[in-house]
Amino acid sequence: MNEPRFFSVSEFAICVSFENRISETISQKVFNLAEHIEKNPLAGMIEIVPAFSSLTLFYNSIIVKKSFPSFPTAFEAARVYLQNALQNLPANEEKPARTIEIIFDASAEFALDLKFISETKNLSKTEIIEIFTSKIYRVFMLGFLPGFAYMGETDERIAVPRKESPRLKVPKGSVGIAGKQAGIYPFDSPGGWQIIGKTETEMFTPNEENPTFLRAGDSVKFTAKQAK
Amino acid sequence: MSLLIKKEGLLSTIQDAGRNNFRRFGINPNGAMDETAARLINILLGNDESEAVVEMHFPAPEIVFEEDAVFALGGANFGAKFGDEEIENWRIYFATSGSVLKFTEKVFGNRCYLAVKGGFKIEKWLDSFSTNLTAKIGGLDGEKLKTNDRIFFNQRSKTKDQRLNYKISNHLLPFYSRFPTVRIIKGAEFENLTAISERDFLNETFAVSKNSNRMGFRLEGKPLYLLEKLELVSSAVDFGTIQLLPDGQIIILMADHQTTGGYPRLGNIISIDLPLAAQLGANDKIGFHLISIEEAENLLLDFEKDLNFLKIGSKFAFKE
Fold first, then answer.
1. Cβ contacts (< 8 Å) between B259 and chain A: which residues?
2. B10 and B31 both lie in a single domain
3. How do residues A142-158 score in pLDDT, each as one tens digit?
4. Which of A212, B211, B222, B278 could form a disulfide with B34 if both were Cys (CB 3.0 to 4.6 A apart)?
5. Is residue B37 located within the same domain as residue B144?
6. Closest Cβ–Cβ partner in B134, B241, B304 for A146
7. H or E segment and range at residue B103
8. Domain ranges of chain A
9. What is the C-alpha to C-alpha distance for residues B301 and A63, in angstroms, rounded to an integer?
């Protein structure tokens, strides 16, 4: 792995970024770092956002500055804190993941872009769904919309880029592909992912204690409902 | 003990200082676009600075006070009036039951805030009053305010508070302009700009397109270029992040921004200058001035010190 890079996102956030790619090893390192930070938080820390290959630490810069007066800036104090945390990380250990099954309907009325993928990739619709459902996906991160899980990695044979021009309204529950990523829209939303079906499972339930159905680190198994 | 939206406006929502701690679940912070305005009028009224406020766009709603209330307006100037009486921003007013607050013209800015003494009685969602229009939760039923909506007050106004007529001192107010230059700190991909684009980014002005909203402002100006094309995996972004789109135009992420993004990050507007951006509307222009993170942190510290004086002053004014 390359040397991590540190940069400010705002006056209230520092990002430590590993390599610019999606990999389970890097993702595991991000999760381990997140866990370490939660157990040993920085004074003045607000929250952390683990992503594919980076972790961003949000902090109250005034509190951090007051807590670490020997540093010229809160940013510098946070940078040294992250650097130390990285040095003290335990070896990359895989945590047992929750395995979650998601059933979706790949009928033509929901699989808005299945025809397009079929034509682009020269595969039948059945083959595409078979390839898509044949593997277990990892939830790398949540972002974009409340409860939107970025999953990967989609098989190369069906990895299609985002739509040139995004849809103004992707229906809630739509299951989509963007490159080697898979995702589910928790709400009706504008979006450019290629849609292959729709699930009835609620991805976001605002009044529950854990409002998101999926969490970073989960393993997800997709099952396609037989088309009637 | 309430106010009534007699006639709804274009887009009015309940907001506060934003929702922290849930970004990792994709839950964006929301909150007032001009957070400084919302904080200032709350502090002026002796409220907690993160009390709920009404954020209004123009045309703004017509509001009936159904009970005596002490209130203040801040941010944009929408020509607020009680009958013929003009209502200034940043000043404490007393509304008698039945009085009607109207907003008659767009004098300056795009987002006006209304706070009442004691705050609005709104249920918090995930520790914040702010409305999340995407998830349809928070604020008043997760929606924008509609005709006949009622917003209740937390407390009855006290007779002795009704005489107060304070105004926030000018030096504490954001230096609003339709053509501001805002200070920024470097973003992760700033150094990837070509030399010419770096100069253009910091010397040109960029027009706010009509394609701008609470999520972000699309800007129109000289296209900017990176030394080479960058495909980035998504990572966290923040309010004020300036991103470069594939067509060379830039976008500023605003209060309803997504939690993560994958476009190259040129910089981030410093928090005390965000109100200047937040009050812009279509065809206004913005320029960027680069400062160090150290300067940015010191400016913030100075501003918070000033705010503390206001807090002490207000607490004293409203003392029992």
1. 49, 142-144
2. yes
3. 998 999 999 999 999 99
4. B278
5. yes
6. B134
7. strand B100-103
8. 5-87, 99-225
9. 10
